[in-house]
Amino acid sequence: MCMKYEKGSRYALEDVSFTIDRGEFAFFVGSSGAGKSTLMKLIIRELRPTDGSLKIFGRDVTRLPRRRLPYLRRNIGMVFQDFRLMEDRSAFDNVAFAMMVTGSSRKEIRKRVPHVLGLVGLQDKFNVRVCDLSGGEQQRVGLARAIANSPAMIIADEPTGNLDPGTTLDIMNLLRSINLRGTTVLIATHNREIVDRFKKRVIYLENGRLVGDEQKGIYTHVH
Ligand code: ADP
Predict the structure, then answer these.
(1) pLDDT digits (tens, 9 = 90+) for 127-141
(2) Quick check: is 17 in a domain?
(3) pLDDT tens sequence across 155-173
(4) Domain carrying residue 3
(5) Rounded to two decimals, what is the model's pTM?
(6) How many domains does the chain have?
(7) Are the beta carbons of 163 and 86 closer than 8 angstroms?
């Protein structure tokens, strides 16, 4: 697949080709501008490839009609570097809102939100406003929100970019435990320590090209 933002400009992604199996855990690494965010935007169909195809859950999403987008996006949980939470609302409300917009009933929400907040270790913080939580706790809310609708896949774009090393490890361990429950997890990161420690699949991007793809990879790609 290829992706160009504007006609005549250089490719943001060029001849990128890979397959991720259901239930996999993979890191995308590469320096700033390598194309990681572009790739994530293509997966959620915020962008369309200029050429080639992109299949998600077995369907080519490049031609997916607009009315099918909510179904695709409900099946993909997003986690962001800057959390993107409603800061003046409680942890509970933030997760509940994500379920409300996808049409869950009040009853489902009342049952599911405490469950997912418990999974990320926030059982004692349901009613605390996000702005009164630490950075690590805020990202736990972000994870709870991402898994609230039981998505098949989680995409995390630099999920620990704003966190200290100890908290980073906690969040990454949570992502790993989410993966162990069967959810596919894709993480774009610059975090060398984490990538080296986890020994998972690593897909290397450089200037818009896929230059390596290693099972049990380490951060530094050896050409
Ligand atoms: P990364 O996430 O690895 O830092 P990006 O996917 O953000 O990389 O960027 C890949 C390339 O695409 C870069 O050359 C960047 O300048 C370009 N790019 C990203 N977003 C846009 C945009 N909205 N319009 C034009 N070019 C963009």
Answers:
(1) 999 999 999 999 999
(2) yes
(3) 999 999 999 999 999 999 9
(4) 1-75+152-223
(5) 0.95
(6) 2
(7) no
